[in-house]
Write a structure and sequence with these properties.
single chain; about 375 residues; alpha/beta; UDP-N-acetylmuramoyl-L-alanine:D-glutamate ligase; Rossmann fold; nine-stranded mixed sheet; 18 strands; about 30% helix; globular
Amino acid sequence: MEIAGGLYREVCESPAWDAQYGSGGRAAAAISNLSPGSTLHTYVFDEHSDGISHLQALGINIQSYPTTEQIAFAYFHPLSRPHIEPPISLLKPLPSLKVSGGTVLRFGFLEGDAIINAERAIYDPQTSRLPQPFSANGSQTKELALVLNESELSSAANTLDIDVGAKKLMLEQDASVVIVKAGARGATVYERNGIRNHVPAYRSESVFKIGTGDVFSSIFAFHWGEAGCSAKEAADLASRAVASYCSTRQLPASTQAVEQQRPINTRTPKPILLDGAVSTIGRRYTLEEARFRLEELGASVICPVLGDGWNSYSKNDVGAILLIMDGVSPDKIDNTLNSYALPLTVLAEDSPDKIFSGVKSSSLTITGDFSSALYFAVWSAMSN
């Protein structure tokens, strides 16, 4: 398979992460055992970097094009907006790459572009800032699949109605398939023949979100473009692979790990009750950030300690509880479990196993990872 995509440094504060992947590098790593000898077409700052060596050790061929800019993404946590260096506005566009092949996966670049000629093309624009149509730069294919998240689709189709937007893009870009990713709620597969299928998200032991979209697009591209699977089957396999990557941060995922994933209930999540301490600016910031990111994941949030009254909600409306333990007594867990017959997710970054070793409940999930805690709460609110 041919892959055209960026090779960028990624740094995350919590959990700690420092790697050279980017959309192109991660996609190549993800399908390295499924499509041996695949080629990554990308702009390269240092041909002897650890990232290049890692991909080559996986059997990936690198078709490199020189650049004088080393682009890096810095995250505070995996759900935060990345800081990009150098700023996008200062990047001078490089000459476009030209890539031909039977199956070509094309990502959007920061520093350039890729002009594609393929039998089957999969296009992931990687931006919600007016993503350009596949053929706008002269790219050609006999069959096209578009893979976007909800914000990218809304921007590209100029509508908040996902169904309308998917059908509009399918007509405007002559696509056979449009896949709309919805994070914790899975993805929807639209096909030219009018068929619409939902693919669930799959449960993972933890949730490391950096690059999950790259993994999804890559695994889908292989199964739909090379293996000849239906769009629904390919998207389902991609969603399973994402869950494996979220748990381990390892690529490629093992076949056994992909097959053993458990699907998440696809219902709209009930409101989540968010609780914690606001006695310091750091504690208040964490609660504010949790509320904002939960809403981005599609959940409604009630947080009385931040001034969110119950308004039209009652205890019966709540689907799950997220408790952030920093500054809160461990007794709060028992009190919450006794007050609400609801799933409780606890974010305890400071030695969670030691602090709560005596607390046992089938309704209780404890994690030391911020992003995982938010996803666990959303999944509980969807299942309850």
